[in-house]
């Protein structure tokens, strides 16, 4: 039996002393913001990009920027990468309210990093943590 994609990614991250975050597509699906299931297994990392094959399983580790890795391996971090994946136009009030309903305790983490988020993403997070209305 082969290891899971998550186990492979975790092992590589440990080996390279790096952090992981699900890709934006995976995070959006896991948080209920999208019904699309990603065809590829992709993780964002602050380590080097690489593809790792174990048997028939291909795991892609993609180097990500600072914003995507603000809160690695947390629901709050998943919310950030999911929103970036969906984009400004898809971050409607209803999507943000749905996200807010799934986060609860993670809202404190989002509030802590809010000032480090660029423009529209920061405004979207304000709505999620309960501080503002979405701007179209």
User: What is the ordering of alpha helices and beta strands?
Assistant: HEHEEEHHHH
- Total helical elements: 6
The global form is: globular
User: First CA to last CA: what distance?
Assistant: 49 Å
Strands, total number: 4
What integer is the average pLDDT?
A: 92
Number of domains: 1
The rounded Rg comes to 15 Å
Largest sheet: 4 strands, mixed
In what range is the share of β-strand residues? 5-15%
Q: Major sheet: order of its strands?
A: 1-2-4-3
Helix content: 40-55%
Structural class computed from helices and strand pairing: alpha+beta
Contiguous uncertain segments of 5+ residues: none
Mind sketching the topology for me?
Blueprint: H1 5-16, E1 20-22, H2 24-30, E2 41-45, E3 50-54, E4 57-63, H3 75-86, H4 93-103, H5 106-113, H6 119-128
Parallel strand pairs: 2-4
Antiparallel strand pairs: 1-2, 3-4
Helix pairs in contact: 2-3, 3-5, 4-6
Plain-language structure description:
The chain is of the alpha+beta class. The protein has one domain (5-128). It has helices at 5-16, 24-30, 75-86, 93-103, 106-113, 119-128, and strands at 20-22, 41-45, 50-54, 57-63. The chain has a four-stranded mixed beta sheet. It is globular and about 45 Å long. It starts with a helix and ends in an 8-residue tail after the last helix. The model has no long low-confidence stretch (mean pLDDT 92).
């Amino acid at each position: 039996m082969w290891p899971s994609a998550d186990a492979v990614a975790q092992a590589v991250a440990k080996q390279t002393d790096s952090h992981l975050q699900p890709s934006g597509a995976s995070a959006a699906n896991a948080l209920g913001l999208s019904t699309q299931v990603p065809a590829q297994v992709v993780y964002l990392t602050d380590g080097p990009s690489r593809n790792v094959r174990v048997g028939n399983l291909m795991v892609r580790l993609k180097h990500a920027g600072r914003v995507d890795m603000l809160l690695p391996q947390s629901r709050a971090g998943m919310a950030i990468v999911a929103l970036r994946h969906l984009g400004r136009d898809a971050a409607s009030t209803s999507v943000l309210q749905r996200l807010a309903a799934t986060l609860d305790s993670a809202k404190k983490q989002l509030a802590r990093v809010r000032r480090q988020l660029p423009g529209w993403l920061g405004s979207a997070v304000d709505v999620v943590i309960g501080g503002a209305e979405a701007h179209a």
